[in-house]
Design brief:
alpha+beta; Alpha-Beta Plaits; 6 strands; binds ligand 2BA
């Protein structure tokens, strides 16, 4: 068995959960935040039999879209006076960041 940890954008979560539950996978949804953008995203924990792993990854690939987000960074300006100006930077986020882990034991007690 494998544990898929998928970090997805909030905008993709409803559709993805609908599709993975319809396909018979069990999932747990956790609210999370990215370390770089510090904005909300969602982490899904999905336990899956090894033979169904590829089908699950395909659903994630197919559902999670790549998007651009704007980040404003304050940059110092070199000149006669010290100044700091906000500079917008475009960052590409997603589709999804996925880790696949081996499960040593799976119990429901
Ligand atoms: P964030 O950390 O908020 O990162 C959002 C996006 O910012 C990233 O998209 C990437 O395009 C960019 N980014 C991240 N760190 C950067 C840096 N040091 N310099 C320039 N740009 C940077 P994704 O790669 O699609 O990642 C989306 C989210 O997935 C991340 O949100 C984070 O929550 C998670 N993630 C990504 N890599 C991870 C890792 N190695 N371990 C744990 N979580 C990870």
């Amino acid at each position: 068995m494998k544990m898929v940890v998928a970090i997805v954008q909030d905008k993709d979560v409803s559709k993805l959960l609908e599709r993975i539950t319809q396909a018979g996978f069990g999932a747990t949804k956790l609210a999370s935040s990215g370390g770089f953008l510090r904005s909300g995203n969602t982490t899904l924990l999905i336990g899956v039999e090894e033979e169904k792993l590829e089908a699950l990854l395909e659903l994630i690939r197919d559902t999670c879209k790549q998007r651009t987000e704007m980040l404003t960074q304050v940059q110092p300006i070199i000149g006669p006076i010290d100044a700091h100006v906000p500079v917008p930077i475009e960052v590409t986020v997603g589709g999804a960041t996925v880790f696949v882990l081996d499960v040593v034991q799976f119990l429901k007690v």
